[in-house]
Amino acid sequence: LSEIHRGGTRLLSGAYNASICRLLMTTSSAGWVAVIDDDDAVRRSLARFFQAQGIVVEAYGSADEYVERRGGDLPACIVLDVQLLKGMSSFDLVDRLDVEGKRVPVIFITGLDEVPPDLCVRYPELRASLRKPFDVGSLIARVRCHLQGSGGMAP
Length: 155
Fold this sequence. Notes:
Largest sheet: 5 strands, parallel
Mean pLDDT: 74
Shape: globular
Structural class: alpha/beta
Distance between the termini: 20 Å
Order of helices and strands: EEHEHEHEHEHEH
Strand content: 15-25%
Low-confidence stretches: 1-29, 149-155
C-alpha cells in the first residue's frame, strides 16, 4: 500500500518524520482517527492504509454522516476534505464542533491549488493542510502524533 490512486492522481507514501510529530503533539485521549471525504476511492484507500498501519479509523462520506454516526466519542483527529460536495461543508463541520465545545485537531486534504491563507486564523484546530496528491507518509506521521499515548493503535 505504498501508493493510493485517485483517478489519475497518485498519493505517495513517504518516511515517518519525527520532527513533524514533535510539532503536532496533542493531549487528546481519543484512540481513533476520522476520515471524511466524499470521494469513495480516496476515503476507502485512506481507511485501508490507516488500518494497514495499525491505526483505528472510521470513514465517512460526508460531514453530515460524521455528525449522525459519531455519537459522543471524538477522534484524536479528523482528516477532512476541504471541498465536500454534498450536505454540510467541511468548514461548517469545524464551526459546529467548535460551538459544541468539541475542539478536535483537523488535517485538511484538498485538490485545490491553494488553500485559503486565512484558514489557520479562522480555524485554530487546523494542524495541517495537505494538497492532493500528497505524501501519505506525511499524513500518517501527523495522525500518529495525535494518537500517541491515546491507545489508538490496533492490537
